[in-house]
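Example noted here:
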Amino acid sequence: MNVLVVDDEDDIRLMLRKVLEAEGHTVAEAPDAERAIEQLERAPRDVVLLDIRLPGMSGLDALAQIRDRTPEPAVIMITGEDHPTQLALLAGRRGAFDFVTKPLDPAQIEFLLDAVARAARVTHARQDAGDGEGGNHGILGSSAAIAQLLEQVRRVGPSQGRVLITGENGSGKELVAHAIHALSKRASGPLIKLNCAALPRDLVESELFGHERGAFTGAVQARKGRLELADHGTLFLDEVGDLAPEAQAKLLRAVESGELERVGGTRTIGFDVRVIAATNKDLAGQVANGDFREDLYFRLNVLPIRVPPLRERKSDIVPLARHFLERVCAAEGRAPLALAPDAGELLTAYAWPGNVRELRNLMERAAVLVEGPELTASDLVIWLERPEPGEEGTGLRGEIERREADAVRRALDAAHGNVTQAAAALGIDRTNLHRKMRKYGIERHG
C-alpha cells in the first residue's frame, strides 16, 4: 500500500518508515498538514497516518481536506494521549478510519492497514453494486421522517428550482442531492460537486470559474471551473456556508446572469446549470450576523429541504445497522454477522452525533474487525463516544463498560498480570486488551 506519514516528530516518521517499508509498503513523509496536502495533490495515497496535533493546521482540520480527495485515502489518526480524546472521537465521526495512541505499536498499525485493505474491497463492491435501492436512490429507512423527506425529494427533483439542503454532518445531504439530480430533467447531464469548506480561499474562484493559462503561478494551462463543467447539469455546492464573502458576491453574479469569466480571462462564457447547495450551518443566522449575503441566501433557498438527524429516526437505526452489516459481510466474503439484542439497544440509545455516516462506518469497521458470528454491545462500546476519563458512564452503555472493566480485572488477576494469558481467556488479542486497560485505567499486577 502507498502510505503517507504525517507527524512533526522526526523519530516517529523514521520509525514508521522503517517498519512499514519492511512490510512491503511504499512510504512518504510530511512534517505538517500543509505539506501533506501538497503531496496528495501530486500523488494519491491509499492511507494517511495523521497526527492530530501538528504545527500550523491541525490534523483534525486537515482531515476534511484529505477526505475530499479523489480517490479518497483512508485516514488513521495518531494521538499522544493515553485515553482517546474527544478530538480523536470527533475525527472518527468525521470519517477517520481509526486512531492509534503513542507510543505506537507497529503490530497494531499493520493490523489496521490490513483492515483498511479489506474495507477498501468492501467500498469498491458497494460502489459497483450502486446505492440506489427500492426506488429511493439510496435513501434508506421506513420512519415517518424519511417518508416525509422522500416525498419532498420526489416533488422537488423534476423542477428547475434551486435547492438548499440543510442538515447535520453525516445525515445524508449529498445523497439527497444525488437523488434530486437523478429525478431532474438534467439527469443525463453531469453532477459536479464542490466542497466549499475544503478549499483554501485563494483557490475558490479558480475552482468555481476556472482560469486561463498564466493567470497565477502554477497555472500552466487553461482549466474549466466547476460551473463550466456542470453545464446542462447540476452543480452541488457542499457546505456553502463556508464560502468567503468575496466568493459569495461573484457566485451571486454568475448565478443571476448565467455567465462567467475565468480567472485571468476576459471572455464571457455562458452556462446552464441548476444549483443545489447544502450546509450544516444556520444560514439565516449567518445572514443576520452579516456572515452570509442575504441576496445569495434567497437565490439559493428557493426549495428548502431539511435532512433529519439519525436521532430523530430511531426506528431506522437497527434496520440500517443490519443493512450495512449484511452488505459488508457479503462484499468481504465472510459469514453473516448477526446483531445481538444488546447491541441493538446500545445503538438505539446512542445519540449519533455523526449520524448515518457514523453508523455506516461503525458497521463496516465491526464487520472487518470483529470475529465470531454475533456483534455484541461489548464489541461496539469502545468505538462509541463516552464520558471523559474519570467520569461515570450512565444507562446501558455505562453498565456495559462497568461489566467489561470487571471482566478485564478478573482475567488479569487470574493470569497473575500476564497480558497474553488474560487476552486468551477473554478471547481477544493483546493489542485490544491493552486498549481496554488504558480505557479503564487498569494496571496489571503480579
The CA atoms of residues 423 and 433 lie 6 Å apart. Residues 125-134, 387-395 have pLDDT under 50 and may be disordered. The first strand starts at residue 2 and ends at 6.
